[in-house]
Write a structure and sequence with these properties.
The structure is a single chain. The protein is an alpha+beta fold. It folds into two domains: 127 residues; 145 residues, Rieske Iron-sulfur Protein (3-layer Sandwich), CATH 2.102.10. The protein contains eight helices and ten strands. Strands 1-2-3-4 form a four-stranded antiparallel sheet.
């Protein structure tokens, strides 16, 4: 057999023992050569890029103004078409306001700001020099951006940044109680004697029209003639169903809130306000299609599944002298999702 001592762990040419050799050091490749851009060598190209950046910032300003036109110039209660047009103005205005600033800053950095790569040694900054060093950094940044030498860019970005937050401020301002009365959320068009009518025709409903297992989408009589039709409907819309009276389990004090198995509950989900539009006849469950909150009709619309945390409010109903279903009163609690003044 030949000599294999060079294949031993200590004599191998492949594996080096710890401390036997030094780690090979990589050579610093250095900074790659700088490739000048067109704006670096051609003053006309630099001026053109400056105008392009200013135009993008101006687009942001126009987008913000477009948002305000959509917000204040349209009446959302006028018609569905007007509401859609308002949403178009709001969406396009917000998009152009944000896009103009974002693209403008990127284009500014790509075409006009210095793009030289630099390498600096790390060093400790003495505590007493921190303030001076911070000031120097800020001055260097301002100098590199060229904002002092380019007043067109400076003025347009100041205008764009000043206007961009205003749409959000206006929308949050609408949450102030001084401009929106909480009573508008607590009360609906339902009151004693108001007939239950079919949605959307407004045809009154007789108790004899409601058979066991049937479900009606209901609005209060007169809603179609209301000047605030959309707002009132969003609060007052109701689901009307009829069950075998033996299947219902009313709590004390609610025994007369229905009529011969006919009951009415708010159609507005108590989670985020989606319309509860699905009725499972066999299980007597009401289902919200948005987030699958499920309410048990036999237990006063108690939540049995999903994120909703309150039962659907019940509308007390009765029958008038002509056999039509009418409300006994408004809802006894606010409809829709919870809000901070609910209590």
């Amino acid at each position: 057999m030949g000599d294999h001592s060079h294949d031993s762990p200590t004599g191998s040419d492949v594996v080096a023992a710890a401390g036997q050799s030094e780690t090979e050091r990589f050579q610093d490749p250095g900074i790659p050569p700088h490739r000048p851009r067109l704006a670096d060598t051609d003053p006309r190209a630099a001026k053109r890029a400056e105008r392009q950046v200013a135009i993008l910032f101006a687009v942001s300003v126009i987008g913000t103004l477009l948002f305000f036109v959509g917000y204040f110039a349209f009446d959302p209660n006028a018609s569905i078409g007007t509401l859609r047009l308002q949403n178009l103005f709001l969406g396009l205005g917000t998009a152009f306001a944000m896009l103009g600033i974002g693209v403008g800053i990127v284009h500014w950095a790509k075409t006009l700001m210095p793009d030289h790569e630099v390498s600096e040694e790390r060093h400790a900054i003495r505590t007493e020099d921190d303030r001076v060093a911070a000031e120097k950094i800020v001055e260097d940044i301002l100098e590199e951006t060229g904002i002092k030498r380019r007043p067109l860019i400076r003025n347009t970005i100041i205008g764009a940044l000043a206007l961009a937050p205003l749409p959000a401020i206006v929308m949050f301002r609408d949450l102030d109680n001084s401009s929106l009365s909480v009573d508008r959320l607590r009360h609906t068009m339902w009151k004693e004697g108001v007939r239950l009518t079919r949605d959307p025709s407004g045809t009154p409903i007789k108790a004899s029209d409601v058979t066991i297992g049937s479900a009606f989408h209901v609005i209060p009589e007169g809603l179609n003639e209301s000047p605030n039709k959309l707002e009132e409907k969003a609060k007052a819309v109701v689901l009307l169903m009829r069950l075998d009276p033996a299947a219902l389990h009313p709590s004390p004090g609610r025994e007369d809130w229905g009529y011969n198995g006919i009951v009415a509950y708010s159609k507005i989900c108590t989670h985020v306000g989606c319309p509860v539009a699905l009725y499972e006849q066999q299980t007597h469950h009401l289902l919200c299609p948005c987030h699958q909150s499920t309410f048990d009709l036999t237990q006063e619309c108690k939540v049995i599944f999903g994120p909703a945390n309150r039962p659907l409010p019940q509308l007390p109903i009765k029958v008038d002298s002509e056999g039509y279903l009418v409300a006994q009163s408004d809802f006894h609690e606010p409809v829709g999702p919870s809000y901070w003044e609910r209590g």
